[in-house]
Specification:
mainly alpha; single chain; 133 residues
Length: 133
């Protein structure tokens, strides 16, 4: 199976979506209180994982490859951040907060996988049958 052909419009869609997602991530992170535990990044990554799981259920995504490209690898790719998460884990451990770093690492993995699974489960739920009247 070969990869889909890359198109110039795909690059523009990913770039525009990525810029929007990165701006949203910056806004969430800037507006959030910061303490020892990096809650904003955890929330961003868990919400992003959930939305990625739900994305296939959206009619607009199923009807348009372009919308799927802009929202998936674009907006959600720009919104979620593995690099910030990894850097925060490394920084916490380097500052002697090894238990917090380990908890953050494990919680992000568990919550992200759980959120993605929940989103997928929701997106694959059968439609309720219309009531006969």
């Amino acid at each position: 199976m070969s990869a889909p052909r890359l198109r110039g419009t795909d690059l523009l869609l990913v770039a525009a979506g990525g810029a929007a997602g990165a701006l949203l991530r910056y806004a969430v992170d800037s507006a959030s209180p910061h303490g020892l535990f990096p809650w904003p990044t955890l929330a961003i990554n868990v919400v992003g994982a959930f939305v990625l799981g739900v994305l296939p259920a959206l009619d607009v995504v199923r009807r348009s490859r372009r919308v799927a490209t802009a929202l998936g690898p674009g907006a959600l790719g720009g919104f979620t951040t593995v690099s910030a998460w990894a850097g925060q884990v490394r920084e916490l451990a380097g500052d002697g907060h090894v238990a917090v770093a380990g908890a953050y690492l494990a919680l992000t993995l568990a919550a992200g996988l759980g959120a993605a699974a929940a989103g997928r489960r929701i997106s694959h739920r059968p439609e309720p049958e219309a009531a006969l009247g």
